[in-house]
Design a protein that fits this description.
With 279 residues, the protein is an alpha/beta fold. It contains 13 helices and seven strands.
Length: 279
């Protein structure tokens, strides 16, 4: 399954979970405590499968932390007088490299962590969740529980591909996410928009909503638009070649060809006389 390689992970924005679309935010607030914790009171999870971290990426993150601080808290569980990292070891390491003494952390008990994971999984299995809420639930499992799309799929009974495709909805701009939720648009309808620029999404989204487009119609529309765009490029190229041929044959100053006209530009009356002789 080549499409789910390492590069594909970068297409899934899971660093920040938008509470507006988080179906378990209420449960989370009940079992979580946000604190500033001294780095020397935090220990890594020895069971964490990831042992090596890219030094260049860590240095880049450390520079970002120096400028902007830690934008997303790490997640820890209390164990005795220490806190064990559940998610966010890269941020923890980079914060140390940046010279920070403390780091913002979401503190949960081990039992609360397990209960919240179960709650998110139960929510992810609900049929009434919209695509953005579902994608947010998956993102939360990945960002705060270190679960891969494959592991998430196993827990909720879906394929890895299905999980990844749903999570990619988080790449949509905020206005598109809100429109998807407010208008009950399906994942299949919205997925083709993920690769488009924002202005293109703004152009097509009202049509999808007002005319009740199906996923097939969205795909056909984008396919036709792409074909027309390619045809336009080819046409412009052919016109350019013809224009240069006219310039060469007529010794004209400038020639412009459109679908319905040929415009020949001349500098003065003498040049016009020469052009008329050659025509």
């Amino acid at each position: 399954m080549r499409g789910l390689g390492r590069g594909f992970e970068s297409l899934i924005p899971t660093d920040l979970v938008d509470e507006e679309f988080d179906p378990t935010v209420v449960e989370d607030e009940k079992v979580s405590d946000l604190k500033e914790i001294p780095l020397n009171e935090i220990v890594r999870d020895e069971g964490q499968p990831r042992k090596k971290f890219d030094e260049e990426a860590l240095e880049a993150l450390a520079e970002s932390i120096k400028s902007n601080g830690v934008l997303q808290p790490i997640v820890v569980v209390k164990e005795g007088n220490k806190y064990r990292i559940v998610a966010g070891e890269r941020r923890y390491r980079a914060a140390g490299m940046a010279g920070l003494k403390t780091i913002p952390a979401i503190v949960r008990t081990l039992d609360a962590q397990n209960r919240l994971e179960l709650s998110i999984i139960e929510n992810a299995q609900r049929e009434d969740l919209n695509g953005i809420e579902l994608a947010t639930a998956y993102a939360k499992l990945k960002a705060q529980f270190n679960l891969s799309p494959k592991q998430i799929g196993k827990r909720i009974g879906k394929s890895e591909t299905a999980v990844v495709n749903t999570m990619r909805l988080l790449n949509l701009p905020d206005f598109a996410k809100k429109a998807m939720v407010e208008n009950g648009l399906s994942e299949a309808v919205m997925r083709p928009l993920i690769v488009l620029e924002e202005d293109k999404i703004q152009e097509i989204l009202p049509k999808i909503i007002e005319e009740g487009w199906t996923a097939r119609r969205v795909e056909d529309y984008l396919k036709n638009k792409k074909q027309k765009s390619s045809a336009t490029v080819l046409k412009e190229h052919l016109n350019y070649e013809r224009e240069q041929e006219f310039v060469s044959r007529l010794s004209a100053h400038k020639v412009k060809i459109t679908s319905k006209s040929i415009t020949i530009t001349f500098k003065n009356h003498k040049e016009l006389e020469k052009l008329l002789e050659k025509l």
